[in-house]
Amino acid sequence: MSKRELILDALQELLYEGTAGTASVQDIASKAGIAKGGLYYYFKSKEEVLDALVERQYSNVIETCRAKLAEIDAPASEKIKLLLYFYRSTAVDRALDVALHEPQNAAIHQKSNAFIMQQLAPIVSEIFQQGVGEKIFVCEQPEQTAEILLSPIIFLLDPGLFTWTDEEVQLKLKALAQMLEASLQAPVGSFDFLYENWTKQSLN
């Protein structure tokens, strides 16, 4: 295992222990069994280590979603539903999630959300293009439309950023479903899955 991975594993262990918030660069290096200078060879700061750990974690989540979706032969409308289901149900390290919602990690939290959208948007864009080929969607800008779909799900509904009531979230998802249906000229009800049977746990 490379030293870089040892450093990321060390920070992850500190997250498990609940001490990552107060841990210093020296603490991370000691946990990894390397010199402090060795850590600085790969990262400029503790924040960079956490940033890299977030990227590693979510890259694994998104690649899992991509692999599962590649095994399925389904119409575009069903693939979007499945992709969001896979994303929400693929386990994210709980300690890492808690750390990202700590006030001192707000900037990294925002970066993690941006990273997720950047990685998921091309997958959704491909699904929209499939829908165009199936003649169930009309979409001249699939990549930008994908970002519009993902933005509220990733940012607006992030409980670390906003504290909506269940009713408010459901209304927002219903509005998003109606907007997408109209924009894509999709069959009626194509995006109802966004808000039907919604629970707080289904999006977090």
TrEMBL record:
The keyword DNA-binding applies. The keyword DNA-binding applies. It comes from the Bacteria. Keywords: DNA-binding. Residues 1-61 form the HTH tetR-type domain. Residues 24-43 bind DNA. It holds the Pfam family TetR_N. Coiled coil: none annotated. PANTHER family: ACREF/ENVCD OPERON REPRESSOR-RELATED, ACREF_ENVCD OPERON REPRESSOR-RELATED. This is TetR/AcrR family transcriptional regulator. It comes from Enterococcus hulanensis. The lineage of its organism: Bacteria, Bacillati, Bacillota, Bacilli, Lactobacillales.
